[in-house]
Amino acid sequence: MLKKNTKDPINGVLLLDKALGVSSNTALQQVRRVFNAKKAGHTGVLDPLATGLLPVCFGEATKFAQYLLDADKAYIATLKVGEATTTADAEGEVIETAAVTFSATDFADACAQFTGTILQKPPMYSALKFQGKSLYEYARQGIEIERKQREVTIYGIEILSFELPIIKIAVSCSKGTYIRTLAEDLAKKVGSVAHLIALRRTKTAGFNIESTYLFEQLAKYTQAQLFQTLLPCDVLVAHLPEYLFSFEQVAQLKYGQNVQVIENYGKMQVFRIYDANHQFIGLAEHNGVDSFRAVRLMNTSV
Q1: Strand 194-204 and strand 50-58: pairing?
Q2: Which contacts of 264-270 are long-range, i.e. CB under 8 A and separated by 24 or more positions?
Q3: Is 47 a catalytic residue?
Q4: pTM of the complete model
Q5: CB within 10 Å: which end of the chain, N or C, has fewer?
Q6: In 162-283, which residue ranges form alpha helices assigned H by DSSP?
Q7: What is the pLDDT of residues 44-76, one digit of tens each?
């Protein structure tokens, strides 16, 4: 564990393998204490009953965490068909049962029909807000809130195992996709009902589960080992184009001045920017014609 009151700033990204039964916030606080970090945040909530990839940002990296919220994701989901629950997962009570008479071919056909851009209605047991409260707070009180369907994209569904009543699938999808809802919809398409009994996030924004660390591992690491687990802050915006600035141009940005350039990109877009030593400086937006303005910059003085 890092020494308390360390003067070394902790900036970077940890790829955590969140444990079962732990909320994302609890997992965040656990690793924050191990690193003795003053500032930390995560890049998208995983339910307590879900496990897997949870990027955790420390220090300056928290400035760029929002850029992962829109990232595509991948999951391994385990469904139990024939039973529906109040929460659409194993935490809820069984509220409906149905026959399980479909074949693997039937289920594969259903998966094909749900591949592409589809409409999903967010579940009541979700963190979406309505009048300042999460939907799950209303659900626990037995209050149903009207929810609008919204577009999500399912890039692919692969059946990993089919041993009724248990089915395991791998799903790659866009942001905002509810795998619990997908499980219910797939079961409905084949004339049954279902709920999730396990969910594991395996990918997000180019990060893979193979690169993660368990909290139990981190708790045993030395200070040097802990620092070796951190990725640089700019991995969070690696999908953005890169632009190299001179030291003089970087100074202009830090003073809030626009930087004139000769490049004309024809449209406004955000770049990750570096100085002449290729040190990550932050993000700047090109106006599409001839200049950059700072969007979010690293505090490189710390």
Answers
A1: parallel
A2: 264/288, 264/289, 264/290, 269/241, 270/240, 270/295
A3: yes
A4: 0.88
A5: C
A6: 179-189, 215-218, 223-228, 247-254
A7: 788 888 999 999 999 999 999 888 888 899 999
47, 89, 185, 234: the active-site residue:
47
CB 261 within 8 A of CB 44: no
Tell me the CATH architecture of domain 12-70+207-236: 2-Layer Sandwich (3.30)
DSSP E strands: which ranges in the chain? 12-18, 40-42, 50-58, 73-81, 83-85, 94-97, 116-120, 129-130, 133-134, 150-163, 166-173, 194-204, 207-208, 242-244, 259-260, 269-274, 280-286, 291-297
According to DSSP, the residues that pair with 168 across neighbouring strands are 78, 161
The alpha carbon of 113 is separated from its chain's Cα centroid by a whole number of angstroms, namely 25
Domain covering 240-297, topology: 2.30.130
3-state secondary structure of 99: coil
